[in-house]
Amino acid sequence: MTFIKVEQKDFVALLTINRPEGLNALNTSVLQDLSEALDTLEKDRDVRTLIVTGAGDRAFVAGADIGEMAELTREEAVSFACAGHEMMNKLSSFPMPTIAAVNGYALGGGFELALACDLIVASSRARFAFPETSLGITPGFGGTQRLARLVGPMVACDLIFTGRRLNAEQALALGVVTEIADPESLLERVLEIAHAIAEKAPAAIRNAKSAIYEGLCGTLSDGIAIETEQFSRCFDTDDQKSAMRAFVNKEKAPPFQGR
Ligand code: CO8
Predict the structure, then answer these.
(1) How confident is the model at residue 21 (pLDDT cuts 50, 70, 90)?
(2) In the chain, how many domains are there?
(3) The domain that contains 213 carries what CATH number?
(4) Is residue 60 classed exposed, middle or buried when 0-12, 13-18 and 19+ CB atoms within 10 A define those classes?
(5) Is 132 a catalytic residue?
(6) pTM of the model
């Protein structure tokens, strides 16, 4: 994998998009590398939290590669969009929590990549925008859908129609990011969050993630049924038994084993 770096330690995987000279823009090779990396990480039971970030100190991802898109035909645009969707869908359905550490520009496809993660933590230097309409296109890697679901259609219309840039504070105010960190300590802070999540019972985290997203697709009563299913599944795990028995016996609970 030329454009992706993966590091793993203590149940946390850090995936870095590594094309800093092009501000980590997503071309076909980057999309392919990302897709392969996600396939591998998804099967790895030692990954309890996944962080996604961009190399360098200027950009998370400055969008899909404009040079590669400039002369696409409509049919080729469908293939390019499908490759983008396939990768974004793998990320958004990653079984364990994902955190985007946005260290700079998150524009167009870069904003869409962050929106495919469960949490977004931004450096105070981060900038978010959908510049697509200035390039004669709509967002094409899930942005119209994921942004509207996150912030509602009116804010999504504002950001997509105008292409206006949000700084980290504005993104926080709109609920697009969960937290802002100093640029120098962004990764440290995101690792801290990732490790805090990785210490929890993996099945509880996985089942909660499933319940949240699957539940959003249907009615409230569908969602409650999904929650009941995911909640009850936790009782098949040793981790639930040992944590609750430890509490009842006033003992320190052992670390979760992921079983
Ligand atoms: N695509 C290709 N190359 C890029 C991109 C990009 N999105 N962004 C930056 N680069 C390259 C530049 O061309 C430049 O390369 P080189 O050094 O070879 O000239 C290098 O990165 C550094 O960039 P700049 O010199 O421009 O750096 P500045 O600090 O002057 O500006 C900006 C930084 C503001 C981020 C500027 O680079 C910029 O505006 N980039 C484009 C941002 C953009 O419009 N992104 C959205 C693209 S469209 C999109 O993402 C659609 C997604 C859905 C696609 C669906 C397909 C069907």
Answers:
(1) very high
(2) 2
(3) 1.10.12.10
(4) buried
(5) yes
(6) 0.97
* Distance in Å, CA 104 to ligand 1 centroid: 13
**Is 20 close to ligand 1, i.e. is its CB under 6 Å away?**
no
Give the number of C-alpha atoms closer than 13 A to the C-alpha of residue 36, restricted to the C-beta side: 13
What distance in angstroms lies between residue 22's CA and the mean position of ligand 1's atoms? 7
pLDDT digits (tens, 9 = 90+) for 49-75: 999 999 999 999 999 999 999 999 999
Q: Is 256 a domain residue?
A: no
Question: Which ligand 1 atom lies nearest to the CA of residue 65?
Answer: 1
Q: 242 with 127, same domain?
A: no
> Which amino acid does the sequence have at 198?
A
pLDDT tens for each residue of 204-248: 999 999 999 999 999 999 999 999 999 999 999 999 999 999 999
List, in sequence order, every beta strand (DSSP E) within 75-118. 98-102, 105-107
Q: Do 119 and 58 sit in the same domain of this protein?
A: yes
Q: Is residue 176 very low, low, confident or very high in pLDDT (cuts 50, 70, 90)?
A: very high
β-pairing, 119-123 vs 49-54, is: unpaired
Looking at the fold, whether 183 and 56 belong to one and the same domain comes out as yes
Residues 39, 45, 48: CA angle, nearest 5 degrees: 95
The answer to whether 242 touches 254, Cβ cutoff 8 Å, is yes
Closest ligand 1 atom to 59 CA: 35
For residues 178 and 242, state if they share a domain. Answer: no
Structure tokens at 179: 């937290």
Give the mean pLDDT of 124-148.
Answer: 97
Q: Which of 21, 71, 76, 112 is catalytic?
A: 112
